[in-house]
Amino acid sequence: MEQEKFMKIAVAEAKKAAAAGEVPIGACIVADGKVIARAHNTRETKKNALHHAELLAIDKACKKLGGWRLFMCDIYVTLEPCPMCAGAIVNSRIKHVYFGAKDKKAGAFGSKFDMNEMGLNHIPKITSGVLCDECQSLLTDFFKGLREIKK
């Protein structure tokens, strides 16, 4: 299935984040069936609150396409976007958001609240649960490992 193919790329990015000691979240952006950008969290290594996987991928996609309107693009992300990333997705006009695991603490496309119910000028289509178990396991294993280190 095409959704799983692209989510596996986001998962590979999340694994890069984990290997660097970052929360394992990865994203990729697809246009016309081709990956045009991919990224993973670098908040800790770059010491920058804006370095979420989605924002970095959106930045790369804008540079690649030469504009800020990504209306022909889909984004695949391993964890439901937070409010900041959901806002960037809406503002960049991304067509479709596919995410793996839900984020009950900060998910902005249905878990904590739904950005699409805010009456904004763009409403992306949302598909959740793509490779959900694998995406959730990355996060669970990462935080379990951190707790064991602290013991």
**Radius of gyration computed on alpha carbons:** 14 Å
* Percentage of residues in helical conformation: 40-55%
Q: Which ranges are low-confidence, i.e. pLDDT below 50, for 5 or more consecutive residues?
A: none
Can you write the helix and strand succession as a string? HEEHHEHEEH
Q: How much strand content do the residues show?
A: 15-25%
Q: How many beta-strand runs?
A: 5
Number of helices: 5
Q: Which descriptor suits the 3D outline? A: globular
> Structural class of the secondary elements?
alpha/beta
* Multimeric organization: single chain
Q: Give average pLDDT, whole number.
A: 96
Spatial strand order of the main sheet:
2-1-3-4-5
How far is the first residue's CA from the last residue's CA?
41 Å
The largest sheet, given as strand count, sense and whether it forms a barrel, is:
5 strands, mixed
Ordered list of secondary-structure elements with their pairings:
Elements: H1 2-19, E1 26-31, E2 34-40, H2 43-46, H3 53-65, E3 73-79, H4 83-91, E4 96-101, E5 125-128, H5 132-150
Parallel strand pairs: 3-4, 4-5
Antiparallel strand pairs: 1-2, 1-3
Helix pairs in contact: 1-5
